[in-house]
């Protein structure tokens, strides 16, 4: 069957990765979490003290870019890909609040974006990929056969993220999570390079009140409408 490219963009914590994983599993496609790649670069910047008091040493980060290798490796027991920063598994470390609070600053550096976008385009060169992020339908795969733009109210998103963090053992206040989400929304959609916006041809999905199953059914119908069965 013909393979397509599926680009999923949207605000933080709109369930992009949950949907992308469901789709990749159902269609036997590769799933790439592009946000994890920006988080890995932010982690590198934190580890090397290139970010202090939320101020990034942009020049030094750019100088270090050739030394930053980000890659995914499939973990058969988890049945999922995990992210590696310079050969070290950083799958858990990239999800801390410290990384969440600094990643948008790192993601606004054009040189960082160029390096990661080139890698993302290489990963998707053969199609059969589901990638989620902020600029997938606009910059990375503007010709993707299916583009989705996910939204949900800020309160709904903060509650989901808060529940996830608490379930993972993190002590955090709901207000801190809400503040992180709204400030990232603002930074991501107002930055100069590749801001988050709904790309032309993207289908908007507001899942504030949509169950996961219902959303998946809806999107699967869209995927099927894009796969030309007569032309495998
Ligand atoms: O999807 P996420 O919340 O893990 O993404 C982390 C940050 O990375 C997000 O605040 C914006 C940035 N990002 C981006 O600029 N472009 C992408 N394609 C993916 C993420």
In short:
The chain has 232 residues and is an alpha/beta fold.
List the helices and strands and how they pair.
Blueprint: E1 5-10, H1 16-27, E2 30-33, H2 34-47, E3 51-52, E4 55-56, H3 58-64, E5 70-75, E6 80-85, E7 88-89, H4 97-107, H5 110-123, E8 129-133, H6 136-140, E9 146-151, H7 154-167, H8 174-190, E10 203-206, H9 212-226
Parallel strand pairs: 1-8, 1-9, 2-8, 9-10
Antiparallel strand pairs: 3-4, 5-6, 6-7
Helix pairs in contact: 2-4, 2-5, 4-8, 7-8
The structure holds 2'-deoxycytidine-5'-monophosphate.
2'-deoxycytidine-5'-monophosphate (DC) binds next to α2, α4 and α8.
Describe what you observe in this structure.
The protein is α/β, with parallel strands linked by helices and 232 residues long. The protein has a single domain, classed as Rossmann fold. It has 9 helices and 10 strands. It has a 5-stranded parallel sheet with strand order 2-8-1-9-10. Strands 5-6-7 form a 3-stranded antiparallel sheet. Strands 3-4 form a two-stranded antiparallel ribbon. The chain binds 2'-deoxycytidine-5'-monophosphate (DC). 2'-deoxycytidine-5'-monophosphate (DC) binds at residues 12, 34-35, 38-39, 103-104, 107, 133-136, 184, 188.
């Amino acid at each position: 069957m013909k393979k397509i490219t599926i680009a999923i963009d949207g605000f933080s914590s709109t369930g992009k990765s949950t949907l992308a994983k469901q789709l990749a599993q159902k269609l036997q496609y590769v799933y790439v979490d592009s946000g994890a790649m920006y988080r890995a670069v932010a982690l590198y910047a934190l580890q090397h003290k290139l970010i202090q008091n939320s101020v990034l040493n942009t020049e030094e980060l750019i100088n270090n870019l050739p030394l930053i290798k980000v890659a995914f490796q499939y973990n058969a027991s988890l049945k999922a890909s995990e992210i590696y920063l310079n050969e070290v598994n950083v799958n858990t470390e990239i999800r801390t609040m410290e990384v969440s609070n600094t990643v948008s600053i790192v993601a606004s550096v054009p040189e960082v974006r160029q390096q990661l976008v080139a890698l993302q385009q290489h990963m998707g060169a053969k199609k059969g990929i589901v990638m989620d992020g902020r600029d997938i339908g606009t910059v990375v795969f503007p010709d993707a056969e299916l583009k989705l733009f996910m939204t949900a109210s800020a309160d709904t998103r903060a509650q989901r993220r808060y529940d996830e963090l608490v379930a993972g053992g993190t002590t955090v206040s709901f207000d801190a999570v809400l503040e992180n989400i709204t400030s990232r929304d603002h930074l991501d959609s107002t930055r100069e390079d590749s801001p988050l916006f709904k790309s032309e041809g993207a289908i908007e999905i507001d899942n504030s009140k949509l169950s996961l199953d219902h959303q998946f059914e809806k999107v699967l119908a869209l995927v099927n409408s894009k796969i030309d069965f007569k032309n495998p």
